[in-house]
Specification:
Length: about 90
């Protein structure tokens, strides 16, 4: 019997597609209430996932889905910061 390895899937807060965790970036709300990108994917706090794409982040901003998932208001300045980070690693 073949063993099928289960890939952990997460939903992108922008395009709403389910994707392999490795294809997404984790946006983290730290216990201090800061919102930033978690490149390790393991930092403490509440996380939400977005594709490695500035388009998806912009969609998420339009929908307000980061604020909703992280249960904290995400300021436009924070999105700008996230966008800059994503542009660096965008595929
Ligand atoms: Zn997406």
């Amino acid at each position: 019997m073949a063993y099928v390895k289960k890939v952990p899937l997460r939903k992108c807060a922008g395009c709403q597609e389910m994707k392999d965790k490795k294809e997404l970036i984790r946006v983290l709300r730290t216990p201090e209430g800061d919102v930033r990108i978690d490149l390790t994917g393991r930092a403490n706090g509440r996380g939400v996932y977005v594709c490695r794409s500035s388009e998806c982040l912009k969609m998420a901003q339009k929908k307000g889905s980061l604020s909703r998932s992280l249960k904290v208001p995400v300021e436009p300045g924070v999105y700008e910061q996230l966008l800059k980070e994503i542009e660096k690693i965008e595929e």
